[in-house]
Design brief:
By secondary structure, the chain is an all-alpha fold. It contains six helices and no strands.
Length: 111
Amino acid sequence: WFQGFFNLPEELWAGFLAGWPSLPGNSNHESWSARLLFGLQLVIKIPLPIALKLVQGILGYSLTYGVSLVRSVTPLFGEPPSYAWSPPVPQDQVGDPAAKEEARAMIGQKS
């Protein structure tokens, strides 16, 4: 699997690993058609027994957990949630404010 993955053009596998809008190569994975093309290119570069296991895993996952995986790479079952970039949550809005304040107070007592 890894050999097939890294035999893809670098911008394809690097974009897949980046997996975040605005990072290099991510444009190769932003649409369902680009993700489907990536998957097809990967499947033809790996040995047949591994490709069959991969397809079997995708089918098994879909039967167990629903269509989210298939929807993320095909136009079937509607569009996936947007992969568009959105700004990060401001640091003061991450986590539990009360717990943070308590931790800061405890740290301040030790100093």
